[in-house]
Design a protein that fits this description.
Helices cover 73% and strands 0% of the residues. The chain has helices at residues 2-31, 40-51, 59-65, 80-87, 92-118, 124-147.
Amino acid sequence: MLKIKKNIFLYLISIIMVLFATVPTISMVIKNASTYQWDFKVHYYAGRAFLCGLNPYVYENFKNLSLGAVDMPFKFPPYTLFFYKMISLINFQIAYHLYLLIKVFLYFILIMLWKRFFLKALTLYYLYYLYFFQFSLGLYMQTLKQEM
């Protein structure tokens, strides 16, 4: 009984730490859309070019669609265009947030897969703590960068 309460307590602490690290980071990414996920514009407008029947590998095609907002070419495999084509069906701001949500969700799925197939000896708490440390360090480095 005592071990079960200890496990539940550790699990709750881990979840709180992950939320404490994730929520501020996601809000920072949402508020500074031009700084973070800067390559999403390329993906979005390449998908839009593909949707319009244009070749997304020709830089001018999706640069014109983005009204000059994209400043680098699309250099990703062709099969990714089908995903970006679906994303480009919706408004850019909504697509930006959806893309971020998908990335965060897939990150947690990746942690679960690591735990299940590769890190069987570690408890999931250690992975949560590693995640918390990584985001905390990232926020700290970002704060230092802004102060300079």
